[in-house]
Amino acid sequence: MPGNLRNALLKSGAVIDGASALPLHFGAPKAELHAALNVCMVADRSPAARLIGDGPDLADLLHRLSTNTVHALEPGGGTATVLTTAKGRIVERLFVSHLGDAGLLLIGGNGRAGVVLEHLKKFTFAEQTGLRDCGNDYSLLALGGPLAGEALALAGLETPPPLGAVGGRHDGMRVHVLGHDGQSANGYSILVANAQAGSLWQGLVLAVSKTDGRACGELALEAARIRRGVPACGSELNEDHNPLEAGLWDAVSFDKGCYVGQEVVARLNTYDKVSRRLIGLKIPPDHLVVAGGTKLYRNEKEAGLITSIAALEGVETVGLGYIKKRSAEVGDAVQLGAPDGPTTTLQAFPMTD
Question: Global pTM?
Answer without folding.
Answer: 0.95
